[in-house]
Amino acid sequence: MRIARDLSSLRAEAARLGPIALVPTMGALHEGHLSLIRAARREVAAMGGAVAASIFVNPLQFGPNEDLSRYPRDEAGDLAALEGAGCDLAWLPSVEAMYPPGRATAIEVGGPSEGWEGTARPGHFRGVATVCAKLFLQTGARVAMFGEKDWQQLQVIRRMVADLDLPLRIVGCPTVREADGLAMSSRNRFLSPAERHQAARLFAALTETATALGAGQPAAAALAAARARLAAEGFGLDYLALVEPESLRETDSLPGRLIAAARLGSVRLLDNIAAG
Ligand code: PAF
Question: Where does this protein hold beta-alanine (predicted)?
């Protein structure tokens, strides 16, 4: 696996490797990320070229009171994991290389950025969209893989790519879960053993709600019951909602996407599943 740390070596490697299937990450890799690398390998088998992954903890997508400084970092472990999963090129820009002094451009996506994570984390999707557009242009990727775990992020990226006519395809990949259903996330390591045990209830609540909706229960009642259950179980619920899958607008009809964000101790869990 080749490693590029500056833009000129990245461009030289990308020109040599041919069409790129990109997996953007912030490192602290787990099985969810490695499933994206394997999905990228399948894309490359069909189109030729190579798999690239970026590791960049993007300061632009963290708010002033968020966990940028404690975001887990393990460069050596990440590089070994990428190589083991079949990645050909790792792109590790510095903050200065990504955001040179004097930078004055950002990408603002409306529509699916609004509400939910957009409300809970003002500026978050501006940071995500800006860094992803830069990663797409820096690598010249033909295809990029994103996990469905961050459902709203996936819709924001799809909207940006469509609106800006960016010449690449976005592939959404299924959420990878622990045996008890908890969606894998780099932040799960901060859960205490008791919180870790409790965390699986979020997916269970989503599944129970989807089942109730599928059986014909009105959305308002099914959601209210699930919110009450989660609150009683000790979650600090930011939202649990049924939304249109692409626009993220709230809905009461199926098919939809059930999305949730809930706090357990210092960890904010995000999850979502299809409903209907
Ligand atoms: O999902 C993530 O890890 C990040 O938001 C991404 C897409 C790598 C952009 O920094």
Answer: 61
> Which residue, by CA, sits nearest to atom 5 of ligand 1?
128
The pLDDT tens digits for 173-187 are 999 999 999 999 999
Residue 195 tokens read as 């919180």
Cβ–ligand 1 distance for 24 under 6 Å, the answer yes
Q: Which of 219, 240, 218 is nearest to 229 (CA)?
A: 240
Give the dihedral sign, CA 197/203/204/206: positive
* Residue 17 pLDDT class (50, 70, 90 cuts): very high
- Say if residue 27 carries a ligand binding annotation: yes
Convert 94-115 into a string of H (helix), E (strand) and C (coil). CHHHHCCCCCCCCCCCCHHHCC
CATH 3.40.50.620 in the chain, residues? 2-173
Ligand 1 centre from 216 Cα, in Å? 36
Going through the chain in order, the beta strands assigned E by DSSP cover 2-4, 20-25, 50-55, 89-91, 143-147, 169-173, 236-243, 256-264, 267-275
The domain 186-271 having CATH identifier 3.90.1710.10: the answer here is: no
Give domain 2-173's CATH number out of 3.40.640.10, 3.60.21.10, 3.40.50.620, 3.90.830.10. 3.40.50.620
